[in-house]
Amino acid sequence: xxxxxxxxxxxxxxxxxxxxxxxGTFFLGFYIVNLLDxxxxxxxxxxxxxxxxxxxxxxxxxKTSADGINxxxxxxxxxxxxxxxxxxxxxDPDGDGLPNFLEYIHGTDPNNADTDGDKFSDKQEITxxxxxxxxxxxxxxxxxxxxxxxxxxxxxxxxSEDDKKTLKDLENGLSHFPKTAAPGDNGNSIISGHSxxxxxxxxxxxxxxxxLNDLQNGDVIxxxxxxxxxxxxxxxxxxxxxxxxTPEDEKIFANTENPTLTLSTCWPLGTNLKRxxxxxxxxxxxx
Length: 287
Ligand SMILES: [Ca+2]
Ligand SMILES: [Ca+2]
Ligand SMILES: [Ca+2]
Hints:
Strand order of the largest sheet: 1-2-3-4-7-8-6-5
CATH architecture of the largest domain: Beta Barrel
Shape: elongated
CATH class of the largest domain: Mainly Beta
Bound molecules: calcium ion
Helix content: 25-40%
């Protein structure tokens, strides 16, 4: 009897320890879970949460945010300009054709169709290569960068198709062919540069495009624009074609619906006979 009683006591003790251990573990786990659960309410809201408060189209923002839009800054800009509505990202309250996110990127007024008051709307100026936040004929500074072939040169907004004037422009960098699309905008943007020139020729850009032939499909071309208000926007393109043509070949000038880039230089090296053409398609804007 006594032996059984001892055994029972022992069993009971063991069961007690096991129950205590179980309950201990349970409550410790419960405590930890609650502690973790508590943390997000203590933390400051993430950028995403802050933006959700302003009902901004998150999906659209995410597409661009990787390359520059700071969600917190954009959110603050939305508040500062008293913008509201479900799709505040794409809305166009001033009716200038420029959605709010582009007003933000260009630093223009989302509640004023003509920020610089020069009678041309913000959108008109941007799609024609003018600076929307600097009155008159002001155009942004433009730099063309092609890392693979060591190009980092200013682009001149050429005014005339006249050869002599173009040659003058080429002393100062690359030449944007007049009346072709501004970089980043829909249409064909044609930019030319020297591959070679007379040894006595003036300027620092006499061989700027000498290695253009080394470009291959997929290589990246960056076009950086700097507005008077300090806003910097880079348009990135990807090479998708390369060919040699006569200077008048329509393939060079063919217009396109989407933003495309056509780089042109004299070819073969040391001659003015033909043109080496590199075409590139628009990838994205970075700011
Ligand atoms: Ca607008
Ligand atoms: Ca505007
Ligand atoms: Ca204007």
